[in-house]
């Protein structure tokens, strides 16, 4: 825990014009009750997270520096901490720290399967049915690298059923292992599979692009957009028009001519999304999870209408009877079992992502996928300006301060500062020497012109306050005053007091300074009124 907290220690405050501290983009996990056990500082560091378990009482998350933490009830050692002790405080999983998690899935035991960015597979947790793929039926208390038959392959996707596991390699191969009572491993038998085995049959020579698992069934979409299914079919969840189990992969003939882009599985129902944004569903429907307006099971793919809008994302989880979808216009719909109610048609919500549906309405409240901070390649105008500060490739002016160059753009300086508007007008020089202020101070000033915020220590803010007074920039002066006020301590109070007096700062602030030269060995505190 201490190692995690130290990530934010030593961070320097960035004060914006309105006085608020700037914040890193963070993952919104607040709708899952279990995250109430984490402190606000811990929540700020989370970059990936997954809530799982039979009651949604386990969570795994990774931080911005690839440390991995877990907390919860730890059924069958599914937290990977080396024991079966429950925890209401985050515990670090040393075996996974430093390994970037690319994808994660979990079973009902629960067992957990992850793949790293390097394509390595790690498993741990419940293992009574060989679902960890390590050749034993002993529960795994720590993450273990699974290399048998996968050693020279890069795994890019993982999926778990109740007690079996499925992985997809970068070459489009599918491997399965674990519980096989209904043929969900695809081996042609019903014997449990203790180690990863390549799924062949009709998938032989096919390149799979994505995979999914229901409780006791498995599915794969191949390059052509065809869907192959195998395993338990008692509710018609294989979409083959029957209810018989399928021990080897079989193509869904009813989807002939339809190119499937994505597939997800609920407890006993299936959703697919086509390349044209159409949604089809089949399987169990006792809670309305197919979205067809009734509760009748469907053994064939059935079209589902979502307000005639193009669907871009579908969501389901093998532990729930809930379905969700996101449309091109950003609307989030849910249906199926929603907090005990049966919703038989897609219902428009006020959510901004499908993950929130499962946090608030699924039973149990689990994650249907690994939550991640979404990368955003689009830069706003403000972000673009900030990026170009001190960039020698685009700058047309540089300041030489204390022997160091600071690269800027004339037009921006003239727009942002009246002083530069005057001195740079008609000036064709590309180098300006600056002797009046130090490098940290002048760089902070120029950066402020690009970002509207300052990022420096209270001591350096004294010099910047001097500069702001010289240039008559009242907004900058105000930010300097705030930085000094927030950073004052017993060691620097006198110096900051002198600066406040010198620069005629306004406002009243009181601070206690320890005066050691007194008869009292413990020291004596006196009040110092610092004008700010």
From TrEMBL:
<dbReference type="InterPro" id="IPR000210">
    <property type="entry name" value="BTB/POZ_dom"/>
</dbReference>
<keyword id="KW-0677">Repeat</keyword>
<feature type="repeat" description="RCC1">
    <location>
        <begin position="119"/>
        <end position="171"/>
    </location>
</feature>
<dbReference type="InterPro" id="IPR000408">
    <property type="entry name" value="Reg_chr_condens"/>
</dbReference>
<feature type="repeat" description="RCC1">
    <location>
        <begin position="225"/>
        <end position="276"/>
    </location>
</feature>
<dbReference type="Pfam" id="PF25390">
    <property type="entry name" value="WD40_RLD"/>
</dbReference>
<dbReference type="Pfam" id="PF00651">
    <property type="entry name" value="BTB"/>
</dbReference>
<dbReference type="InterPro" id="IPR051625">
    <property type="entry name" value="Signaling_Regulatory_Domain"/>
</dbReference>
<protein>
    <submittedName>
        <fullName>RCC1 and BTB domain containing protein 2</fullName>
    </submittedName>
</protein>
<dbReference type="InterPro" id="IPR009091">
    <property type="entry name" value="RCC1/BLIP-II"/>
</dbReference>
<dbReference type="InterPro" id="IPR011333">
    <property type="entry name" value="SKP1/BTB/POZ_sf"/>
</dbReference>
<feature type="domain" description="BTB">
    <location>
        <begin position="395"/>
        <end position="458"/>
    </location>
</feature>
<feature type="repeat" description="RCC1">
    <location>
        <begin position="172"/>
        <end position="224"/>
    </location>
</feature>
<feature type="repeat" description="RCC1">
    <location>
        <begin position="277"/>
        <end position="328"/>
    </location>
</feature>
<dbReference type="InterPro" id="IPR058923">
    <property type="entry name" value="RCC1-like_dom"/>
</dbReference>
């Amino acid at each position: 825990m201490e190692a995690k907290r130290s990530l934010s220690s030593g961070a320097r405050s960035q004060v914006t014009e309105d006085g608020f501290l700037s914040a890193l983009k963070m993952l919104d996990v607040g709708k899952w009750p279990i995250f109430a056990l984490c402190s606000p500082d811990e929540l700020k560091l989370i970059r990936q997270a997954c809530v799982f378990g039979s009651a949604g009482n386990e969570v795994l998350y990774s931080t911005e520096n690839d440390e991995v933490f877990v907390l919860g009830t730890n059924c069958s050692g599914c937290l990977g901490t080396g024991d079966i002790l429950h925890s209401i405080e985050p515990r670090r999983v040393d075996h996974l720290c430093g390994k970037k998690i690319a994808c994660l899935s979990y079973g009902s035991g629960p067992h957990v399967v992850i793949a790293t960015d390097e394509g390595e597979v790690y498993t741990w947790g419940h293992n009574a049915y060989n679902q960890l793929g390590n050749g034993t039926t002993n529960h795994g208390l720590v993450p273990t690298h699974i290399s048998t038959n996968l050693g020279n392959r890069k795994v890019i996707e993982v999926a778990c059923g109740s007690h079996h596991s499925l992985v997809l390699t970068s070459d489009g191969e599918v491997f399965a292992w674990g519980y096989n009572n209904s043929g969900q491993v695809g081996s042609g038998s019903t014997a449990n599979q203790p180690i990863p085995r390549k799924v062949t049959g009709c998938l032989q020579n096919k390149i799979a692009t994505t995979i999914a698992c229901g409780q006791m069934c498995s599915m794969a979409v191949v390059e052509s957009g065809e869907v192959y299914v195998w395993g338990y079919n008692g509710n018609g969840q294989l979409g083959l028009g029957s209810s018989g189990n399928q021990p080897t992969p079989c193509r869904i003939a009813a989807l002939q001519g339809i190119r499937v882009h994505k597939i997800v599985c609920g407890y006993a129902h299936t959703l697919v999304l086509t390349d044209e944004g159409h949604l089809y569903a089949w399987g169990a429907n006792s809670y309305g999870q197919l979205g067809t307006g009734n509760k009748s099971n469907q053994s064939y793919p059935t079209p589902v209408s979502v307000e005639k809008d193009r669907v871009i994302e579908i969501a389901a989880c093998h532990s729930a009877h809930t379905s969700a979808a996101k449309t091109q216009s950003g609307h989030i719909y849910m249906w199926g079992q929603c907090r005990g109610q049966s919703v038989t048609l897609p219902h428009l919500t006020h959510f901004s992502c499908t993950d929130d549906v499962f946090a608030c309405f699924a039973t149990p409240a689990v994650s249907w996928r690994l939550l991640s901070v979404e990368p955003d390649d689009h830069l706003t105008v403000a972000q673009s300006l900030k990026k170009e500060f001190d960039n020698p490739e685009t700058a047309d002016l540089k300041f030489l301060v204390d022997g160091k160059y600071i690269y800027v753009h004339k037009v921006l300086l003239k727009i942002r500062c009246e002083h530069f508007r005057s001195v740079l007008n008609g000036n064709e020089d590309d180098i300006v020497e600056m002797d009046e202020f130090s490098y940290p101070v002048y760089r902070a000033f120029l950066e402020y012109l690009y970002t509207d915020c300052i990022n420096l220590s209270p001591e350096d803010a004294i010099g910047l306050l001097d500069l702001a007074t010289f240039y008559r920039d009242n907004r900058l002066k105000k930010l300097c005053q705030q930085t000094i006020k927030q950073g004052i301590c017993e060691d620097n109070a006198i110096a900051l007091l002198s600066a406040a007096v010198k620069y005629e700062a306004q406002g009243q602030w009181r601070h206690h300074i320890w005066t050691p030269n007194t008869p009292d060995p413990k020291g004596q505190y006196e009040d110092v009124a610092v004008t700010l």
